[in-house]
Structure formats: structure tokens, C-alpha cells
UniProtKB/TrEMBL annotation:
Record's protein name: DUF7953 domain-containing protein
InterPro entries registered for this protein in UniProt: DUF7953
TM ranges: 166-188
Domain DUF7953: 29-139
Source species of the chain: Zostera marina
Keywords: Membrane, Signal, Transmembrane, Transmembrane helix
Stretch forming the signal peptide: 1-24
Pfam families, A to Z: DUF7953
Amino acid sequence: MEKVQFQVLLAGLHLLTFLLSSDGIDSTNVVTLKSILIYTTHNWLPIQPTIYFACKGEKNTTTLPDVKVTNVLYTFNGKESWQPLTELPEKKCKRCGVYKLDILKDDVFDEWEFCPADFVNGNYDHFEAKEFNATFRCPSCTASETGVSTSSKSKRGSHGKLKRNIVIILIVGILSSVIAVAGLVGGIRYLQRRKREMDQAKFIQLFQEIDEEEEVDEEHIEIINAV
């Protein structure tokens, strides 16, 4: 019984943890590179460039290992080992850019304000004349969808959160009931064990008293016989 209660409690805690953390999962604006075409390499010598993506204030930079040749459209599925590029906040923008690694000072293809609201149907196209043309992908950054207004999406999000909150309340109620029942059963078993221990102690004490009385009677008999 206790094992079953523990398993139910553990499963409920895992489910509750998942639901509480699902908001953070849904709200993560992960950005990947869908395609890029460069018009220049910023190289004076005929060597392959090292091009990377970076955002201000972040230590990590993302090197684009395949992007080496101009006027070639490179496409990606978002599952490459170097993806994703970055994560965008819900409402704020990041200052990001595409750069070329250099010995003295890195060359800048372009820097711009990277915002979740710039994405349409999960895609954002960025073009800089004579530099590059890139498409970025962020499904959760979608600012507008065909035939779907922002208010309706907001209502859907609120409705989803309401359902999640109801489920969380139900799980908390079930867990509370399981804990209460487990505590009640544990209390009853503790009282029963204490009662058994007390009965055993009384039984042992009774035997000791009987033994003492028998010893006293034997002593009296011995005294009488001696007289």
C-alpha cells in the first residue's frame, strides 16, 4: 500500500514539474538559420573566409562552417550541430550581426536589431545590399499569421494557460489527497504499533509480577517447613 502511494505521489510530482516548466518551453524563442547567400567575402586574398553570427552581450558566437563561396544559396534544416543561433526574449530585441573573422579586426557584413516581432509566419528575411541575404526561422516568434489576428492568438494562449492551470489545480488536489490519506494511514499504523508495544509491555510486566509472587510463596513455604 505504501509503495503504491509513493509511486502515485512521485508520478504526480513529475507531471506537476513538467506542467510548471512547460510555460518556459513554449515561450522560448529559439532562432535558427534557414538560408543565407553572401555577395562578398571581405577577403583581399583568395582564401576561404570564416563567417559567424553573434549577438551583443553574448559570449558565444556561431560559426557558419559551410558558408565559404559568394553567390551560392546555402540552405539548412535547423538541426545542424552548430544550430540554433540564439534565443530572443519575448518582447525585447537583441543587437546581432553577421561577421567575418579577421586577424586585426573582424569585418562586419551587417548589424541590426533582431526582434521577435519581425518574424512573419515564423520566418524573417534580412537583406543587406552587396553583403548578404538571409532567412531566419523562429516558429514561436511568429508575429502574424494569414487569417489569424494577434488578439485571437492571444485568446488561444490565454485559453491554453487556463486549461493548464486547471490541470495543475487538479493534480495538486489529488496529491494533497494522497498525502492526507498516506498520513492518516501512517498515523493509524503508528497508534496500532504503539498499542501492541504497550500490550506486550503490560503482558511482560504481568508475568514478572506472577513470577515474583511465586517466588515469595515458595519462600514462605520453605520457612514454614523449616519451622
